[in-house]
Amino acid sequence: AVELSRHHPMASWLCAMLHCFGSYILADLLLGEPVIDYFSNNSSILLASAVWYLIFFCPLDLFYKCVCFLPVKLVFVAMKEVVRVRKIAVGIHHAHHHYHHGWFIMIATGWVKGSGVTLMSNLEQLLRGVWKPETNEILHMSFPTKASLYGAILFTLQQTRWLPVSKASLIFIFTMFMVSCKVFLTATHSHSSPFDVLEAYVCPVLFGSASGGNHHHNNHGGSQGGSGPGSPHSPLPTKSKEELSEGSRKKKTKKAD
User: Fold this and answer.
1) Sequence ranges of the domains in the chain
2) How far apart are CA 101 and CA 139, in angstroms?
């Protein structure tokens, strides 16, 4: 990132804008609204640009060191989660205004509102001249992405009156959960997720065990491969070698005659 900012400052600035406003861009794209609409907010663009400049070009990296100081960082992390929950709730309310019975549209809009930055990571990599499709966020979801998805489902149920909880109470409860989890993970430098324990029990029941499926396929492939032409235990490769050696001896004998 530092090397990119020195050699390609325009690409670095665009990556920073995607990190700041990626959720708004994806939400506008889903709802058929102008993608560039949020960039009309000049104060937000100038503030994000000022933060980007101070992060990369502040003398002695003072701004970066202050932000990375753990107590200060925890405050910013907590504030970010408060904003994330608010964006999820606002995104679902906005989608509900256009599609009253579109549950999946509301969930998708709330999801990208909460985790649009990580979902646009591949596009951000292209701007940096890097292509790593194996790092797709859909394949390897981080805690904020999973929490945004689960939160979008809860807020959609509340918006459609299927969850008998007031919106203010749900926002407060989910905000406390997100803030406490993210602050704890940041303070302990952990990359795990609080959902891992629950998913370890639920996913094998709903979707089957991945290790068991691989073992079954391996056994099935091994039983076929034992009698196949490419198997190391098959007599066919040995027979073909003997035939080839016998044919070469006959050719040499004919040449000698």
Assistant:
1) 62-206
2) 29
- Taking the chain (257 residues) in runs of 10, the rounded mean pLDDT of each run is 84 90 90 86 93 92 93 95 95 92 93 88 84 82 92 95 93 96 92 84 83 52 47 46 55 53
Q: What is the pTM of this model?
A: 0.77
Q: What is the pLDDT of residues 212-237, one digit of tens each?
A: 555 555 555 544 444 444 444 444 44
Q: Which two tokens stand for residue 179?
A: 């803030």
- Please count the residues of the chain: 257
Q: Residue 97: how many CA atoms within 13 Å on its side-chain side?
A: 8
Under 8 Å between Cβ of 129 and 136: no
Q: How far is residue 173's CA from residue 91's CA, in Å, rounded to a whole number?
A: 18
Q: Is 234 exposed, middle or buried (0-12, 13-18, 19+ CB in 10 A)?
A: middle
- Closest to 117 measured CA to CA, from 1, 12, 19, 11: 19
Radius of gyration of the chain (CA): 28
Alpha-carbon span 25 to 109, nearest angstrom: 11
